[in-house]
Amino acid sequence: METKNIMIVGVGGQGSLLASKMLGALLLSKGYDVKVSEVHGMSQRGGSVVTYVRYGDKVYSPVIDRGEADFIVSFELLEAARWLSYLKPDGQIVTNTQQIDPMPVITGAASYPEDLVEKMRAKGAKVDALDCLKLAEEAGSSRAVNIVLMGRLSHYFDIPEEEWMAALSACVPPKFLEMNKKAFLLGKNA
Fold first, then answer.
1. Where are the domains of the chain?
2. CA-CA distance, 185 to 38, in Å (whole number)?
3. DSSP state of 109
């Protein structure tokens, strides 16, 4: 199997590390060679962050270059647009529609771009955009956006739901498990 590439992008503190850990555990359980990069970016300051997950028969590097991502999973709309050049021509974006103002917008030096989903689609991207924050809150915590996104991403994989749930159980503390299972299912079934 050729190596597949998934980028998880967002803003620091949104849970991209847990999402990449869960995805890595799932893909390892399927027998793939998996490389997961560390979070790159200003994760502790609300800055842009990116994690790479690569899997296949044999993966030699955790890094994904421009034009190589099969999937971009984005926790925030502007981050999806920011990393668009990394998507393969036939790649898929799975994004939360939440908008978090970056520092230039907060300071008034810039305004948040409008119609980002339409602009990405106009550039040929396949975009699956979902209000993951609303679904996470429905599950019981605004912090579960990452797991809602994993539920949505599961649509694009031929991996049974129970295997996703096993990976989730392996990565989430027991006291938060039921809420995260609900978040996963809300994302999957939205």
1. 4-132+153-164
2. 27
3. S
> pLDDT by residue (tens digit) across 147-167?
999 999 999 999 999 999 999
1/5 Cα distance (integer angstroms) = 12
Q: How far is CA 19 from CA 45, 112, 161, in A?
A: 19, 26, 16
Distances (CA, A) of 47 to 23, 42, 44, 50, 114: 22, 5, 7, 10, 20
Question: Which of 51, 140, 50, 148 lies closest to 98, judged by CA?
Answer: 148
Q: Pick left, alpha or beta for residue 67 (phi over 0 → left; psi -120 to 50 → alpha; otherwise beta).
A: left
Closest CA to 151 of 94, 101, 67, 79: 94
User: Which CATH class, in words, describes the domain spanning 4-132+153-164?
Assistant: alpha beta
Exposure class string for 40-54: b at 16+ Cβ within 10 A, else e: ebebeebebbbbbbb
- What pTM value is reported for the model? 0.93
The DSSP output letter for 44 is: T
The pLDDT tens digits for 114-135 are 999 999 999 999 999 999 999 9
